Amino acid sequence: MTKIFAHRGSKGTHPENTLAAFRHSIELGVDGIELDVHLSKDQELVVIHDETLERTTNGSGFVYEHTLAELKELNASSWFSLYDDVQQIPTLEEVLTLCNHLGFTGIVNIEVKTDQIDYPMIEERLVSLLQQEKTFIPMYSSFNLLTLDRLHKLDPIIKKAWIMEGTDSTIDFANYFQAIDSIHPNFEWVVTAQEELSGFTKSIRPWTVNQESEMWMCFEKKFSGFHTDYPEKALALKQLYVQ
Ligand code: G3P
Ligand code: MG
Prior knowledge:
- By secondary structure, the protein is of the alpha/beta class.
- 35% of the residues lie in helices and 18% in strands.
- The chain has a single domain, classed as TIM Barrel, CATH 3.20.20.190.
- Strands 1, 2, 3, 4, 5, 6, 7, 8 and 9 form a 9-stranded mixed beta sheet that branches.
- Bound molecules: SN-glycerol-3-phosphate (G3P) and magnesium ion.
- Pfam families: GDPD.
């Protein structure tokens, strides 16, 4: 059955990529959570979507210009009007600890944000951190094929997905690219690419699927999963679909 992934946590109802958002989505009963990782100035894996701090924190400048201690001074929820509590930028380790603490047995989709900035050795840091005992199933995803290839060489076991905007030729490439077992395409492209996708044998988990009609289509197409900002809505619809 199609798996529901909480995009950046429950981005629609909570400040994205915060512990509050991940806790909420896990407590809802999602099949997976999706998060984005960058490296701080002192090489710590931190969970935030943008390369820069302005949109989702009260800080400014690039993430890589700040140490973890400096990033921890910031409020990552002040911009989100529906939420009052202060939330820090979490480290990846803190999110994984929360998942273990909650006994989460779903998938943690770690998006490696190397499409704009090259973070040297980020792949080694990830693979090293993921050695730990865990209740959840990790997965890597990235727009960056080199990152996926490096991760695959370091750890061929953990599943990897290529995030793609989609063009006709990318499907052929995705079919034979050994490092990946799945694609995470832009949903808008998926709608127009039914023919190209019909012969595709790897798993498909589009983003960002927020409308009920779009979610329904993902169930009907038997996609492996989809990413949504509104996992609560998606879970309710899934209940209806299976009845
Ligand atoms: O993994 C799907 C999605 O998260 C990719 O886009 O920009 O939300 O990280 P973005
Ligand atoms: Mg992402």
